[in-house]
């Protein structure tokens, strides 16, 4: 019985790692599409979104099956309930990579012309996503905590990008639409950073039993 | 055993209804704060966010307890797993009501001066949230489906508001910051509409066993 359970847990782990890899690739493609105006990559990030949704359902039903059949306790229960929550954040990262890509598909954007720091913001956010998933894979508490701290960097970059867009609008108001679209894209990155933070907080919980400083289980 | 389970399900139901009421009140307060510039109400919506977070944790642990202790099947299992997903969307609605309120607190905004339709958008979104929760409470499939359809109305109002903001920016570029902040607020409303749609889709699933047109379990 116990061996079967360990196998199922390992299979859950592998599914989560695959889902994480899909998210990393979606956000990397969306970002390359944005910065280089590459619509093929944008299309790929949009396609990845339904694969990520599918992966979410698989992990979800695996988690529910494990909860129902095995009645896990303590650390195992924490791991499964963390997985159930993490996939919601991963799925939103997929949504947002797809939202960014749809904007790249629908309008001509030259991000660097309007906000120099949008590339930095994108790279910082990708770093958070990659690290949050690595922290899960390696059960690396220190890395999870670095992700949580990195969220402030992304939040500050958002304010920088917003100021850059605003300054550009004052100089050239006729170019109104691109700055508005880029502001929305910057907001998507900021949200992706929030989701990576949530993932890192669930990693912390699954290791320590403490979630956002509060003892949960 | 069965009676105890029914009691627990009813208690879960009541907790979800309370959490839904908190969300409705948070978004209503945030909107009144925005449209009338009332910072007291904005403060109340921000406070409600932590109550909503607390409610999410309570419902979550109740759901996990029910799954573990009772091993429900069929309709009961659907109801509990739907609850587990719905609360994530409710919690995000609370976050976004709080995000809107924080913008009301930090800057002077006169929404009607920049985008006439932002009030309509807010009202349409509140309607979706209220209806999605009512659909859950009354197990009303037709109402859940109306919520899912209403999402297009909110999406179109977002585009209208964006055009209004853009037109205003071209006439008066010096007023750059307020339109950018209002665009972000409009985006929050659009996202709240997405979350209400998700809730309605889970209501549909808990009644029919079909999620977004796909048979899940």
TrEMBL record, chains A, B:
NCBIfam families: phoU_full. It comes from Yanshouia hominis. Homodimer. This is Phosphate-specific transport system accessory protein PhoU. The keyword Ion transport does not apply. InterPro entries: PhoU, PhoU-like_sf, PhoU_dom. The keyword Transport applies. Residues 16-104, 119-203 form the PhoU domain.
